[in-house]
Design a protein that fits this description.
The chain is of the alpha/beta class. 42% of the residues lie in helices and 12% in strands. The chain is built from 8 helices and 6 strands. The protein has a 6-stranded parallel β-sheet. Helix 8 links the parallel strand 4 and strand 5. Helix 1 crosses helix 4 and helix 3 packs across helix 4. The longest helix has 19 residues. It is globular and about 50 Å long. The relative contact order is 0.18.
Length: 214
């Protein structure tokens, strides 16, 4: 194994609860009352695809989908800056990978602005060799595009990369990319069969060992 690619939301930062807050607040402004389960159903998707998903199911008037996306990103930037915390075991996992001379990358469905906010908030701006947003790809997760592009930028073939993911869409994307997959699902989704697609399934990053990546 030559490289480890980390997802961001739910792997680097404990942001999924913040996403639920932001989505429920912003979508309520256009008359759409989402439950936590509704928000969970789009976990791992790009922001623009989340907006399109709900607009297709319950179209609203008065505000463009693009404006709703802008408000959602803005709200998330505030929540991350004020409340963002690293996931348990992250510092140890990053140090272990770096000490092993493996390349380190971040591949996220979030926008470049949110990625920048997260890295700045957590003090990780100089941590990753490659940082890539799925916004730059034609398709978001579960399509493998962002992982394949990240591997290309790292200079390694996909089978020499391991991915650490928390979402079903992310696990599917990494598997489709032909990469080794370590899944760290949310506790209440740990038994979901979709995570059985992963090569390794952990309760937290604190359980990660180097042999799991190879």
């Amino acid at each position: 194994m030559q490289a480890v690619i980390f997802d961001m939301d739910g792997v680097i930062i404990d942001s999924e609860p913040l996403w639920r807050i932001a989505e429920r607040q912003v979508f309520a402004e256009v008359g759409l009352e989402l439950t936590d389960a509704d928000c969970e159903s789009t976990m791992g998707m790009r922001t623009d695809e989340v907006i399109a998903y709900w607009f297709a199911r319950s179209p609203w008037r008065g505000i463009s989908p693009k404006e709703v996306e802008r408000r959602l990103i803005e709200r998330m930037q505030i929540l991350i800056s004020e409340h963002g915390q690293p996931m348990s075991g992250l510092e140890r996992a990053l140090a272990m990978v770096r000490a092993s001379d493996l390349a380190l990358a971040l591949a996220s469905s979030s926008s470049p602005m949110l990625i920048e906010t997260v890295l700045r908030t957590l003090g990780l701006t100089a941590t990753f060799d490659v940082v890539r947003s799925a916004i730059h790809e034609e398709h978001g997760k579960p399509h493998p595009a962002v992982f394949l592009a990240t591997a290309g930028e790292l200079g390694f073939p996909p089978h020499e990369c391991a991915v650490i993911e928390d979402s079903a869409a992310g696990v599917q994307a990494a598997r489709a990319a032909g990469m080794r997959v370590v899944a760290v699902p949310p506790p209440h989704l740990f038994a979901d069969p979709v995570y059985d697609l992963a090569d390794v399934k952990l309760h937290s990053l604190g359980e990660l060992t180097l042999p799991m990546l190879d």
